[in-house]
Specification:
With 364 residues, the protein is α+β, with helices and mostly antiparallel strands. Helices cover 21% and strands 21% of the residues. It is elongated, with a radius of gyration of 43 Å. About 4% of the residues have low confidence.
């Protein structure tokens, strides 16, 4: 029985091998026939590919230039008229300096802009120009020559009793700040400073001289007095309108064009074209409207009856008088450049309880 099974398995293996051999032979035959059939066509194709002028030949780029189809040139157009850049400030020299330089003020200059241009702080410029500006950034006029210090800090005129320690302590600096500033030309081994020498104290500061703030007060008979001495002042029986404490922009232009709120500047200078309308930032009573000395020019003060007052400086013309009641958005005058001003703009202040507050915290 086992011999019969063995013969059966041997017969099956022979059949499988026979079938495999025939399949392999048929596939090889087909492959050979295919190659014999396509070889002439491939040869003819390669011969045509290598003919001159076809892609098979490397192009001669030097003798066969190719012209690209480029769009035609269109000259840039220029709009009629001139545009005034928002940043009007003179370009300063903010490279490393060791000595004071002088800058002649031109139209459009501001302390804020000059500080950014020269790479120093507003306070440092005010420190270096106290005689001319009295710590008030608005005391700037075209043609004025001001000092620009080389670094942030303050100049000190050396006195016979001064020491490095006392001067550094006075301005909140260190001895090394003074010694290591190359512009002071000090001998580190024996730093002798003659009286009368101008010494830079880098990083040094002092308190800016406070600006006196006029306020609305009452006289002996209980009448309101604007507190501002000048032709625009008046006596009032009471404040007629009260503000809501929410302020609108006093100018149609909503960007800075001059000094920002900061040291020596209690308000913001807003861009306003010459003769453009200016508006009451909130309802209230006009307590000053007229010319004001000290660089203010044509000047308007509105008391809003809720602790707030707003100030508007450098106006060209006035549309209100002292004692008028105005609603929020009422036209109070037109923008100008009267008083200490290097170009048309609006100096705008908000005060609460007679102390200046940052207008950016209140304007929408």
């Amino acid at each position: 029985m086992s011999d019969k099974n063995e013969d059966t398995r041997r017969a099956q293996r022979e059949i499988v091998l026979t079938v495999f051999s025939w399949v392999t032979a048929i596939m090889l035959s087909l492959a050979l026939l295919t190659m014999l059939f396509w070889q002439p066509r491939i040869a003819r194709s390669m011969q045509a590919y290598n003919q001159p002028g076809n892609l098979g030949v490397t192009p001669d780029y030097e003798n066969n230039p190719s012209n690209a189809n480029l769009p035609g040139f269109v000259a840039p157009t220029q709009e009629d008229g001139l545009k005034r850049d928002q940043n009007l400030y003179t370009v300063g020299e903010n490279e490393l300096r060791t000595e004071m330089i002088q800058h002649t003020v031109v139209s459009g200059d501001s302390i804020w802009g000059l500080a950014n241009s020269y790479g120093i702080s507003m306070s440092s410029i005010l420190f270096a120009n106290y005689d001319a500006m009295q710590d008030n950034a608005d005391n700037l006029s075209v043609g004025q020559v001001i000092n620009i210090p080389p670094v942030d800090g303050i100049y000190h005129t050396w006195r016979s009793r001064d020491t490095l320690s006392s001067v550094a302590s006075r301005y909140g600096a260190t001895i090394n700040d003074i010694l290591l500033f190359i512009g002071n030309n000090l001998d580190l081994a024996n730093p002798v400073i003659e009286p009368g020498t101008q010494v830079m104290v880098p990083g040094g500061e002092r308190e800016l001289v406070p600006i006196s703030y006029a306020a609305v007060t009452r006289d002996a008979e209980g009448r309101l007095v604007s507190g501002w001495v000048g032709p625009g002042a008046c006596l009032l029986d009471s404040v007629g309108l009260y503000g809501n404490g929410f302020f609108i922009w006093p100018s149609a232009v909503h960007y800075l064009s001059g000094n920002d709120f900061g040291p020596g500047h209690n308000g913001v200078d807003l861009g306003s074209g010459m003769g453009s309308a200016l508006f009451a930032a909130d309802s209230g009573t006009v307590v000053y409207a007229g010319w004001m000395e000290g660089g203010y020019g044509n000047f308007v003060v509105i008391d809003h009856g809720n602790g707030y007052t707003t100030l508007y400086e450098h106006l060209d013309t006035l549309s209100v008088r002292c004692g008028d009641n105005v609603f929020q958005g009422s036209v109070i005058g037109t923008a100008g450049t009267t008083g200490n001003s290097t170009g048309a703009h609006l100096h705008f202040e908000i005060r609460y309880a007679n102390a200046p507050v940052n207008p950016w915290d209140y304007l929408p």
